[in-house]
Write a structure and sequence with these properties.
There is one protein chain. By secondary structure, the chain is mainly beta. About 10% of the residues lie in helices and about 30% in strands. It contains 6 helices and 27 strands. The strands form 7 sheets. The chain has a 5-stranded antiparallel sheet with strand order 17-18-19-20-21, with no helix packed on it. A 5-stranded mixed sheet has the order 23-22-24-25-26, with no helix packed on it. A hairpin with a 4-residue loop joins strand 1 and strand 2. The longest helix has 10 residues. It is globular, with a radius of gyration of 22 Å.
């Protein structure tokens, strides 16, 4: 007979002990397996009973709509892309942003299968395309570059705001999730010539980063059920005309950013916006490329620079950072996110940038590559403290993902 107070079977493990085990499992798949052992474990290990659990490690979203965990194992969930219904999708945090064949848009939780229509966004994109002299109606389905969502802390709701960069970065569309009686925005927010590199919601407003490193703000009033838009972006940090997208170390007409002895012959610079621990960051990603290679085929990341937006001055300015203050950045074309590294029980390194291969500015074009190159060729972990780049994943996991021959982006599952 079991002594008093001592569990007589594994089923009787105390809830606090199950919580200790869960806190040491950074993988959502492992937590699901633990909860599947028996009914008492499933009840005792429910996420709502342990609100201080660290967020699970990110998964990888593949171009065909499937998800795999950080071990390279497929995740069982409802199909994101359904033949004849969805044209394409982008990964947005823990959701899939779907573009339908008729140009309509919606958000979907791949784990639950629940979908949220975005009735205002499709028409906003259509208006932006109709006002363009370059892009035709086919871009209503193909023109989405990046999507950001402003929602409540518990997740996207019908009152969420959704912003998307379209027409290769020359327009932005903003719309509420529910069919409110408000006008959605589709506009060329800047001078019609400057390209938008990234967008981010920060302190309730929408910010746009240009390829000249200018920062522009759209003030949003999201109080109540009828959000109001200011109808325009306003400059917050001025463009720097000296900034380029492509640099050559032997070009006398370009500023020498680095010592020519350290700089590759040719460099491509990508720029990202990310909110991190209450700060708005700009990340420069420096990639080398062989002069005779097609852009994207053999790019290799060799350096990152991180800057914080100082918005207390007028105009604002970028201030270079030497560390992430204990945070880690997961950087991607479709989805970027900052996390507190110490929450992940050693599975995520602080002051590091986790990055994956980039090929094109338009994810949908990857399906036309035929036999694509190694999808993880330019991936790794950049340490801001010493500038070293180490492999993104163990060799066995890398090999498993490389066999899929698809380009990947981050997906952050929610432990519900």
């Amino acid at each position: 007979m079991a002594a008093a107070g001592i569990p007589s079977s594994w089923e009787e493990l105390p809830e606090d002990l199950l919580g200790q085990v869960l806190r040491r499992l950074p993988s959502l798949a492992d937590r699901v397996r633990l909860r599947a052992v028996c009914r008492p474990w499933r009840s005792g290990a429910a996420a709502r009973r342990h609100p201080l659990l660290p967020p699970p490690l990110p998964w990888f979203a593949l171009h065909d709509g499937s998800l795999v965990d950080h071990h390279g194992a497929p995740v069982r969930c409802g199909p994101i892309l359904r033949q004849g219904v969805h044209f394409c999708y982008l990964a947005v945090d823990n959701l899939a942003f779907l573009v339908h064949h008729d140009g309509g848009c919606s958000l979907m939780n791949p784990l639950s299968g629940l979908a949220l229509p975005l009735p205002k966004l499709g028409p906003a994109v259509r208006r932006a395309i109709d006002s363009s002299t370059v892009y035709g109606r086919s871009w209503i389905r193909e023109g989405h570059v990046k999507v950001k969502i402003l929602s409540s802390p518990v997740g996207p709701t019908p009152d969420s705001l959704v912003a998307t960069i379209i027409t290769e970065g020359y327009s932005v569309a903003v719309a509420p999730g529910k069919d409110h009686d408000v006008t959605s925005i589709s506009l060329r927010p800047l001078d019609g010539l400057t390209r938008i590199s990234d967008i981010a919601f920060f302190h309730g407003d929408l910010y746009a980063l240009t390829d000249k490193e200018g920062l522009h703000i759209m003030k949003l009033d999201v109080c109540g059920l009828n959000p109001n838009f200011s109808q325009a972006f306003h400059p917050s940090i001025a463009d720097d005309p000296k900034q380029q997208q492509i640099y050559f170390c032997d070009d006398p007409n370009q500023p020498q950013i680095f010592d020519a002895r350290d700089m590759p012959p040719g460099c491509v610079v990508l720029r990202y916006l990310a909110e991190s621990d209450g700060r708005l960051l700009m990340v420069r990603r420096w990639m080398s490329f062989p002069p005779i290679a097609r852009l994207g085929d053999h790019d290799r990341t060799w350096r990152f620079e991180v800057f914080e937006a100082n918005l207390a001055t007028i105009p604002g300015q970028w201030v270079k950072m030497e560390s992430l203050g204990g945070q880690a950045l997961f950087l991607g074309l479709q989805c970027s996110k900052s996390v507190l590294a110490s929450q992940f029980a050693g599975a995520v390194r602080e002051d590091c940038i986790y990055f994956m291969h980039r090929t094109f500015d338009q994810p949908y074009r990857q399906s036309n590559l035929g036999n694509p190159m190694d999808p993880l060729a330019d991936s790794g972990v950049y340490n801001m403290r010493n500038g070293e780049i180490t492999p993104l994943l163990p060799e066995s996991v890398m090999a498993e993902l490389q066999r899929k021959r698809q380009f990947l982006t981050w997906f952050f599952p929610a432990d519900e």
